[in-house]
Amino acid sequence: MQAVTVRTKAELESAKNAGCVQIIVEGSLADNLKRSKKVATAGAITIALLGTALAAIPFTGGLSMAAAAPVAVLTGFEIAAIIAAASLGLGLIIALFKDYEEISCEPGKLVLKKKQA
Questions:
Q1: What is the pLDDT of residues 64-101, one digit of tens each?
Q2: Where, by residue number, does the polypeptide cross the bilayer (predicted)?
């Protein structure tokens, strides 16, 4: 599969798992993914701290600003990045940016290309 356009988390996961050469992410998913990129490139200790902090927060359909604030203080990330990472899932974000690099970004559109081995 050469290039695929995705608009949902499920489509993004499928494209990543299929090993698509290029993934074009559109809509709010693109904006959330861009916000959460900082989380994906953080160090192992920060990721572990973030994962532990997020696991301790009771989710009631979404991460609220009030719940994200203590996590932001612990990790140093922006609240928007934490909420985006929580909604997409830390595992997906880390795996995605490990295998793909950002080649272009504009509001509502993010183009990722598979890294060369």
A1: 555 556 556 555 666 667 667 777 887 888 889 889 99
A2: 39-59, 71-97
DSSP the chain: --EEEE-SHHHHHHHHHHT-SEEEEETHHHHHHHHHHHHHTS-HHHHHHHHHHHHTSPPSSS--HHHHHHHHHHH---HHHHHHHHHH-HHHHHHHHHHEEEEEEETTEEEEEEPP-
d(CA 105, CA 64): 26
Domain span at 47: 3-114
Look at the chain and report how many structural domains it folds into.
1
Q: Write down the pTM of the prediction.
A: 0.70
